[in-house]
Please model this.
Amino acid sequence: MTKVSILVSGANGQIGSVLTKALREKYGKDAVLATDIRMGNHDDGPFELLDILDAKQLSRLVRKYKINQIYHLAAILSETGEKHPRMAWDINTNGLFNVLEIAKERHMKLFFPSSIGVFGSHTPRVLTPQETIIHPETVYGISKAAGENWCQYYYLHYDVDVRSVRYPGIISYQSPPGGGTTDYAVDIYHKAVQGEDYECFLQEDTMLPMMYMDDAIKATLQLMEAPAEKVKIRTSYNLAAMSFTPAEITAEIQKYYPDFRVTYKPDFRQEIADSWPQTIDDHQATDDWGWHPDYDLKNMTSEMIRNLKAMLVK
Ligand code: NAD
Ligand code: AKB
Model:
């Protein structure tokens, strides 16, 4: 069997920093090359600077480290994308092209994270189906929807073994979020644990799909390990764990911090959130490769608070 040798792009980000660790635990620290456009803290294994738009450097690193799998996380998320539309399109689309091309050339396995951001206001918002209307209204969503289709194209025409999930908003204590619409659901825990009030940029009744980081990592590894014939969707799988509103997460946090107060000052992210689903139908991921989440709002809140408190003490 060929030895697994992985390159992670965007490895310093919210998901990349945790996923790189998980991959190193699974495959060994030297089997996972962390890369990012900026320096980061990856003392436990190899790290190289890589702008994903630099196809030559990507190719050089792939050859140097004999890479046979890429987890392509580098991207610009929804909030930052609306502030810098051309840059977001360029990085999200041309970065993916560079990755797809090298995956084609060297017959590599590829993970591409898509997002609930591919959906728009014409999509059914409750139990959003796997196959449905996809007319995204953000640059981020447009780039992810195009990316999903390009992934399928490279699978169909060039036999690239590309696998993808549409992550909901990811919630973690280990790493800060990187400029998205769901970031409030991470920030709110930090404020509560620090004993501060929180001003939320979404309305109190805005329901969005969310997922605890442990489940996101579990889904990613599970999909990448699934036998190829079980992976029937080559655009991107719907993936779900929980959905809640700012009022509901606040109420859950107040079970630990009864004096915690949240005020609401919606900004331009409200419009983005209003165009996204409230709940997701992910039965196809369950049927095809056995997906089941472990975390709901209750046990995630307990874990977030326990871990953030421990970090505060250090
Ligand atoms: P993040 O913003 O925290 O991290 C992205 C990383 O990419 C950063 O470390 C950044 O430095 C790097 N990067 C930016 N431009 C780059 C470039 N030109 N070359 C190389 N690296 C570059 O994002 P994240 O939350 O970790 O998301 C990772 C992936 O998962 C993204 O593709 C994102 O769209 C997707 N996703 C994330 C969420 C979420 O809630 N976090 C939800 C759905 C999908
Ligand atoms: C964002 O809010 O942009 C991301 C996502 C759901 O894709 N967290």
About this structure: The pocket of nicotinamide-adenine-dinucleotide (ligand 1) is lined by residues 9-10, 12-16, 36-38, 50-53, 73-75, 77, 91, 95, 113, 115, 167, 169-170, 177-180, 182 (CB under 6 Å).
